[in-house]
Amino acid sequence: MTVTRTCAEDATSHDDDEADDPTSHDPRRELDELAPPLPPDGGWGWAVVGAAFFANLILDGVCYTFGIIMPALQEHFQAGKGKTALVGSMVPGCYLIVGKTVVYTLLSWQQNIWE
């Protein structure tokens, strides 16, 4: 005589060996593993992102609108177009020079930082 079990019986029957097995299916363990990790910085990451955004907003705003404020600066400092434009081009120039320097420095320190 053969005994057949239904799907409901298979789902509700547990062997004692499976209950002791730590790798058995436990929905609570899966939920704990899916929980987002705590931020390592204590939650200040978004404050740093916001501060960097506003610093770049102001700095790039000055760089890209320098032509609008250039006549007022010429009048205030009694300088010609060349000298005033030179001052306005120093900020993007420093961006480019410092950017390359930072990249080369980080690449040279890469093994010390990420190991």
Molecular structure report:
- The protein is an all-alpha fold and 115 residues long.
- The protein has a domain at 45-113.
- It has helices at residues 7-12, 16-20, 27-34, 45-64, 66-77, 81-113.
- Helix 5 crosses helix 6.
- The chain is elongated and about 80 Å long.
- The protein starts with 6 loop residues before the first helix and ends with a helix.
Give a quick summary of the entry.
This protein has helices spanning 7-12, 16-20, 27-34, 45-64, 66-77, 81-113. It is mainly α.
Counted beta strands: 0
Mean of all residue-level pLDDT scores: 78
The computed structural class is: mainly alpha
What string gives the helices and strands in order? HHHHHH
End-to-end separation in angstroms reads 65 Å
**How much helicity do the residues have?**
over 70%
Report the radius of gyration as a whole number of Å.
32 Å
- Structure annotation, total helices: 6
Strand percent estimate: under 5%
* Unreliably modeled segments: none
Q: What characteristic shape results from the CA principal axes?
A: elongated
For the sheet with most strands, the description reads: none
